[in-house]
Design a protein that fits this description.
Layout (H helix, E strand, L loop, with lengths): L1 E4 L2 E4 L34 E11 L5 E11 L3 E5 L6 H9 L6 E6 L2 E2 L5 H7 L1 E4 L3 H5 L6 H5 L8 E2 L3 E2 L1 H14 L16 H13 L6 E5 L7 H16 L3 E5 L3 H7 L2 E6 L2 E3 L11
Organism: Streptomyces mesophilus
InterPro entries: ABC_carbohydrate_import_ATPase, ABC_transporter-like_ATP-bd, ABC_transporter-like_CS, P-loop_NTPase
Pfam families: ABC_tran
Length: 282
């Protein structure tokens, strides 16, 4: 259940629309210290901030109802909740695929509420969508092209000719580092399994420079245990380098193990943060 508590809410089991994990602390995982932030990424402040974001569905109901959310630099924040409580719309608003009826989206203090996805990427927002097959990649393009979407110009000689050899080498290096099983750098993205496509999308977003904030929805869905641990390690590493990280997941145990704070999506609101000291969270 979710109920008010000093400093936040308590998270337990059994309430409709809210997952519970009896016996699990409400917030556990990586200890955050300001020293984790890398040079060039300012310490403190908000990497990502949503203020009073409101989105209505076609039937008039609120997918997001004046939702507020803040992700600090070097912090991992989780969004828990049964699917259908506004998580998809939250990610769409953050990524720029959906304009809110009202409210504001800021990245490192800059107003990106009306910015398109490409502008958000240039500003340092990495997005791993839930539907990686249709929103996270272009299946008809090669693995290399998907991995370097928006950055293929780095591999053009004289600004015209694509240096396939250099592109292939760079792609192979990333595939090896992220343990992506692919027939080759120039194999069609569609030839990869869903789990390997997910690894490519995550690798691409983590490679943003600068990476101010990473927003990932269901980042480990469909992955085996070993791959899940590797993804968690890379998310923690991004936060340790100073990026803010937002993780939306239907797996409460994953959020409890990974995040510094957890909020709960419930009927268009973001409740919390969860108080790990509350009896309902233990």
């Amino acid at each position: 259940s979710v109920k008010p508590a000093p400093g936040g809410v308590e998270l337990g089991g059994g309430a409709p629309g809210v997952p519970g994990a009896p016996g699990a602390p409400g917030v556990v995982g990586r200890a955050f210290t300001e020293g984790d932030a890398v040079e060039g990424v300012r310490r403190g402040g908000a990497a990502l901030r949503l203020s009073e974001v409101t989105v209505r569905r076609a039937d008039g109901t609120y997918a997001l109802d004046q939702a507020d959310l803040e992700v600090g630099f070097g912090e991992i924040v989780g969004v828990a909740g049964v699917e259908g409580n506004g998580q998809s719309e939250l990610m769409a608003v953050i990524g720029g695929a959906l304009a809110p009826e009202r409210g504001r989206v800021e990245l490192d203090g800059a107003d990106l509420t009306r910015a398109n996805p490409a502008a958000r990427t240039r500003a340092g927002l990495g997005v791993v969508p839930e539907d990686r097959h249709h929103e996270g990649c272009v299946p008809e393009l090669s693995v290399a092209e998907n991995l370097h979407l928006g950055r293929l110009g780095e591999f053009r000689r004289f600004g015209v000719f694509l240096d396939r050899a250099a592109l292939g080498r760079a792609t192979t290096t990333v595939l090896d580092a992220h343990d992506v099983r692919a027939p080759g750098a120039f194999a069609p993205m569609a030839s990869l399994s869903g789990g390997n496509q997910q690894k490519v999308v995550l690798a691409r977003e983590l490679a943003l420079d600068p990476l101010v904030c990473l927003a990932a929805s269901q980042p480990t869905r469909g992955l085996d245990i070993g791959a899940v641990e590797a993804v968690h390690g890379r998310i923690r590493a991004a936060a340790s380098r100073g990026a803010g990280v937002l993780v939306v997941s239907a797996e409460l145990d994953e959020l409890l193990a990974l995040c510094d704070r957890v909020v709960v999506a419930y009927r268009g609101r973001l409740l919390g943060p969860v108080d790990p000291r509350g009896d309902g969270a233990r």
